[in-house]
Design brief:
- The termini are far apart.
- It contains eleven helices and seven strands.
- The model is unreliable at 1-23 and 61-68 (pLDDT under 50).
- Helix 8 crosses helix 9 (272-283).
- Helix 7 (204-214) links the parallel strand 4 (196-199) and strand 5.
- 30% of the residues are buried.
- The protein is of the alpha/beta class.
């Protein structure tokens, strides 16, 4: 140890001795040694800088890769462009609810009166967005999943499924609520300032209705299958319109519904639940669902976690293919595309 200390400490004395007359070659060698040492130190420093910068680049890339997936699912005024009708026959995907063809002026009228068409700022920069789509199925009863549901970054709810009074089973956090005129909330006691209303238009009069309530005009009930509210409980800044392309994705890419249905069969559309899942799969990193399991074969099975409706009411919905939707959910679950908190698909 002493020898090692001596050698280490004596190196300075030796280098000084090399400056004595008659020791020029040693001095040159020492200078070269010092120059080589400086070069090595410089290269090490440069390598460290490069590694730090590269690490930062990778971190930034990973962070941005999550936020870059935050594709805006909502329609903006700049998305609307007029298009001529097809020369021969009108193709179904181009008109509502799968496109904007022939309804452009209605979309423009509504979008010009909305304050925003973007995702909420709080969601844009989350690197890994965990979402749960909460259905209204009776399977949610007594599952006490409320706290679990509220733990997600994004909680998507459907139609007028209530929260207050059902917190233990469904939680009380609502990031997005999907609806159309006949299913929209009109109960002010259920209002949530942190909720973004996702409006899904299925027909042109849905947009006419939204324009009328936004502008506080006289609201026409003509053309709806049930009475619709004449006022909104949500503020203008809370309202977004879903891109029809996502309804199309739910219908044709996920459910493989027929694009053309021969009369007198009614056309088939996805439920708001499947449409909400389509949006979640587009913008979320992880997608969970809850409350989507239905016992189709049991007419007395409880339909919702609220109210007293049974599956017999579901069977009257001729515009939806519930069997196809249950098969889709089973497929998505088995492939680990989505994860289910309730039900056994």
């Amino acid at each position: 140890m002493a020898m090692h200390t001596l050698c280490t400490g004596g190196s300075i004395e030796i280098s000084r001795a090399n400056f004595m007359p008659g020791t020029r070659p040693s001095s040159v060698a020492q200078d070269q040694s010092l120059g080589s040492m400086k070069k090595r130190r410089y290269l090490k420093f440069l390598l460290v800088v490069v590694l730090v910068l590269f690490s930062y680049y990778l971190y930034d890339k990973m962070k941005s890769s999550g936020s870059s997936k935050r594709k805006n699912p909502f329609l903006c005024l700049s998305d609307i462009g007029y298009k001529r009708w097809p020369a021969n026959t009108m193709t179904v995907p181009e008109v509502l609810p799968f496109g904007t063809l022939s309804s452009e002026r209605y979309f423009q009228a509504v979008l010009s009166n909305l304050k925003s068409c973007e995702l909420p700022n709080r969601l844009k920069n989350i690197s890994c967005l965990n979402c749960v789509v909460v259905g209204n199925g009776g399977v949610l009863r007594n599952k006490t999943l409320g706290k679990k549901i509220d733990s997600y970054d994004v909680v998507i709810r459907l139609n007028s499924g209530p929260v207050i009074g059902y917190e233990d089973d469904v939680g009380n956090k609502t990031t997005f609520r999907f609806c159309y005129p006949e299913s929209i909330y009109s109960d002010y006691s259920q209002y949530d300032a942190n909720t973004t209303l996702v409006f899904v238009p299925f027909k042109a009069i849905d947009l006419r209705w939204l324009k009328e309530v936004l502008l506080k005009m006289r609201v026409s009930m003509r053309g709806f299958w049930k009475k619709t509210p004449t006022k909104l409980i949500y503020k203008n800044s809370q309202i977004r319109i879903l891109k029809p392309s996502l309804v199309q994705k739910a219908a044709f890419d996920l459910l493989n519904l027929p694009k053309v249905v021969s009369w007198p069969k009614p056309p088939q559309y996805p439920t708001t639940g499947i449409i909400a899942i389509a949006m979640a799969l587009t913008m979320c990193d992880k997608v969970h669902i809850a409350g989507f399991k239905y016992d189709i074969n049991n007419s007395n099975y409880t339909l919702h976690y609220y109210g007293n409706d049974t599956m017999s009411a579901m069977k009257k919905m001729v515009y939806h293919n519930i069997t196809a939707e249950q098969m889709l959910l089973k497929k998505l679950k088995s492939s680990n595309t989505i994860f289910d908190l309730t039900g056994k698909f």
